[in-house]
Specification:
This protein is α/β, with parallel strands linked by helices. It is built from eight helices and 17 strands. The termini are far apart. Its EC number is 2.1.1.228.
Length: about 325
């Protein structure tokens, strides 16, 4: 509660119009609440001398606004973190600093159940990693991304919130009735939204835990009718999918090249491949282009429509994407 600060006093009927005008001029003092009585609104202002003459300025007692507490308020610096539903993920090598950051996050106004620190690189056929639990214990969460919800357990499946913008870029290229195969679908962050756009989607996934969440996510996003889940290696897809795909998602950096023979077998007469790779900054795109060309030619003509860096992966290494159109000769 203040001792009394300058406020613009207006009848309630003029409150919103006055508030908007003062806000546009940067005159509202956001450290304090707007007070309402039966007869008047009292709008705190930062500089009473700058208020237009048509307004009545009075000194009035108002409540101090509750300002959300951020981790930076506790630490004195802005820590780097990612949000995955109600899980906060940090990436800190220093154990003591990691504990300090986790404590500040929990004590802030951020809604959080669990704070995790990356404890290893992604590895193995299921692309999972080790986690250090710094606060809480729940590793299952429901993450929302561009209007879709994804349930997952970060300990048993791969999911990166950092890739949301890249996924959205690709998803928005999909048209209704496209034939799409997501060759490494995970819990469905590519496949589910594509099906929601009306595409016929086949989602292949090797990790049985991810397959369970994939099914849950398809159901909770209402895409069951045009969505097929294949549990197992994409190389075991039945012959009915040979020459079927209009679009292939190959989001398996480091080893997508091992599946290019399968991709070419699945590709239709015209097919877009979204190929993800990890490469050194000196040779970002050429290894992937050459690998696709080696697998596709002479049966297909290749056109590289997009090449771009998705994110930094390690010193001098980048996660990149190639959007390559195949046209059967």
């Amino acid at each position: 509660m203040s001792d009394g600060i300058p406020c613009v006093r207006v009848p309630p009927t003029a409150g919103e119009r006055t508030r908007t005008m003062l806000a546009e001029q940067g005159l509202i003092d956001t450290l304090y609440e707007i007070d309402t009585t039966e007869d008047y609104l009292y709008i705190p202002v930062v500089d009473s001398t700058a208020v237009p003459d048509q307004f009545d300025i009075v000194t009035h007692v108002v409540n101090t606004r509750d300002v959300p507490t951020s981790p930076a308020d506790k630490l004195g610096f802005d820590p780097s973190y990612e949000r995955l539903g109600e899980i906060i993920i940090i990436d800190e090598d220093n154990h003591e600093k990691a504990r300090e950051v986790a404590k500040a996050i929990v004590e802030s106004d951020i809604p959080v159940k669990t704070v995790l620190n990356r404890d290893s690189k992604v590895s193995g056929p299921h692309r999972t990693r080790e986690w250090e639990v710094l606060a809480g214990e729940e590793t299952e969460t429901c993450h929302r991304e561009y209007g879709y919800t994804f349930r997952l357990d970060i300990e048993s499946v791969y999911f990166s919130p950092r890739l949301a913008t890249e996924r959205h870029r690709v998803i928005t290229q999909v048209d209704a009735h496209d034939h799409v195969i997501d060759m490494f679908a995970g819990v469905g962050p590519f496949a589910v939204p594509m099906a929601a756009r009306g595409a016929d989607v086949v989602a292949a996934e090797l990790n049985e835990n991810a397959v369970e969440y994939l099914s849950i996510n398809a159901e909770q996003n209402d895409v069951d009718d045009n969505f097929t889940i294949v549990s197992g290696d994409v190389r075991t897809l039945p012959d009915s999918y040979i020459d079927w795909a209009d679009r292939l998602i190959m989001n398996l950096p480091h080893s997508a090249d091992e599946f290019l023979e399968t991709a070419i077998r699945l590709a239709g007469d015209e097919c877009m491949i979204h190929y993800y790779d990890i490469q050194h900054e000196d040779t970002l795109y050429q290894p992937g282009i050459e690998a696709i060309r080696s697998a596709a030619e002479p049966n297909y003509k290749l056109t590289v429509e997009t090449r771009h860096e998705v994110r930094s992966y390690a010193p001098h290494e980048y996660n990149i994407c190639l959007d390559v159109r195949l046209q059967r000769r």
